Amino acid sequence: xxxxxxxxxxxxxVLGLAKNGHRIFEVLSRYDDILxxxxxxxxxxxxxLKLIVPFLIYHGITEEDIKKVSxxxxxxxxxxxxxxxxxxxxxxVRIISTSYQQHAYYIGNIVGVRKENIAxxxxxxxxxNSKIRNKDLAIVEKLEDEIIKDFPKFDxxxxxxxxxxxxxxxxxxxxxxxxxxxxxxxxxxxxxxxLLDFIRIDEAKIAQSIAIGDSITDYKMLKTVRNKRGLAITxxxxxxxxxxANIGVASxxxxxxxxxxxxxxxxxxxxxxxxxxxxxxxxxxxSCLENADKKKLDETIKIHEIYRKKIRGAAxxxx
Length: 319
Description:
The protein is α/β, with parallel strands linked by helices.
């Protein structure tokens, strides 16, 4: 959702309400990338939305704040129109998003996707705020000071060590740690599980599906759909999503998605891939990534990076 449907990274902007919030988010997002790439047990890409929770509570940010930030979100060009057209063609349109529910439901309503067709992160922040006392937040204040003052001098191994200490030792036996454990972010494998839930665990239906993603939280879903003979599209994707897609689309709006959905519906995945091969000869913003070598992947990443930053701004730099 964030990227393909709306440029806003809601959690990034919500934490940005706090002083130095954007910097804190960027550090935790990089930590998320590192844990994902090293294959940390029981860790899923997208858990940044879990990592920032102690800081949201420390700064007294509320669910109403999330909604206010969400209300300022822009929509990617033609998103509502394309979704409406897909429905008319007989597609079942679903949103599978790491986003907190307050943001996911708002965007879903704008583009015409009902709540029951949205999988997102359940996040009763006001309830969490009511459970925490000021004395429980001293360790968050200390870490925040370190992130701003000391982390610029750290290398990544030092950053990793300090954040591991905080999230996996200091938080464990305090009320804040219990909340941290309770949060289940819809990222990584959870996105795959949500896909299976929507198709009622009938994996054969994946071959009749198109998945669209752009970031590290989407790579498992894209990979699953691609490997099960469905169509995986990366839209203004980053280095983490592009290698797992059949087709790359770099665009300021969603109209190319409809083009490939029609090809897929009129034939099968082969027809969509065939069309991508034809278009890419005249248009560098479309890439056929089927069996792409490293050179082609690198070229695609560069093109998508331009559009990603143009559409998403600072959020385009996040994993």
